[in-house]
Amino acid sequence: MNISDLNQYLYCPRRVYYIKYFDTIETNYYLVDGKLKHNNKSRKGGWIKELYVKSDQLGLHGKIDLLEIKNMLGSGYVPIERKRGFSYHANDEIQLAAYCMLLEDYLQEPINLGYIYLFGTNQRYAITITNWHREKVKEITKAICKMTIDSIPDFTDNPNKCKKCSVVQYCMPFETKMLEKK
Ligand code: SF4
Questions:
Q1: What is the model's pTM?
Q2: Residues 109-129: pLDDT tens digits?
Q3: How many domains does the chain have?
Q4: Which end of the chain is more exposed for a tag (fewer CB within 10 A), N or C?
């Protein structure tokens, strides 16, 4: 399972359902904007760019945006997850935690710090990876694995999320609500 699925699940489990079973994900403005920003900002020394990591034990794989090499003495690697916008949320922290856990598995050393970089503020924020983050990663991984095609999750109760969601034309939350009223 790709780590980005964890973030998607926290955004809205129903979204993961569509991506998983209907292969419906399409590019929208928010995805294109995010990708362009990724491509423009990732050329600097002292960083490893786009490191692909996989863990059979965790059942996860993914590409770490940037890996900062703090020093040459070991335990000096800090993953950086870059996001568009002016703030980050719990789902972004969970995604970062999952990268730290993958990296731990890969390097066989503890990784308890990561950064979230926001293009909107041009700042990075240090996130200490706690047991809460780690448990959440495992819990959500399990929940996604348990999903079946005949158990579609509910709509999110936050319509603002739907406005930015790339599977909205398949999911049709607004249309369903209108029909339910009738
Ligand atoms: S459109 Fe809304 S309810 Fe449907 S998957 Fe996207 S966020 Fe979830």
A1: 0.80
A2: 899 999 999 999 999 999 999
A3: 1
A4: C
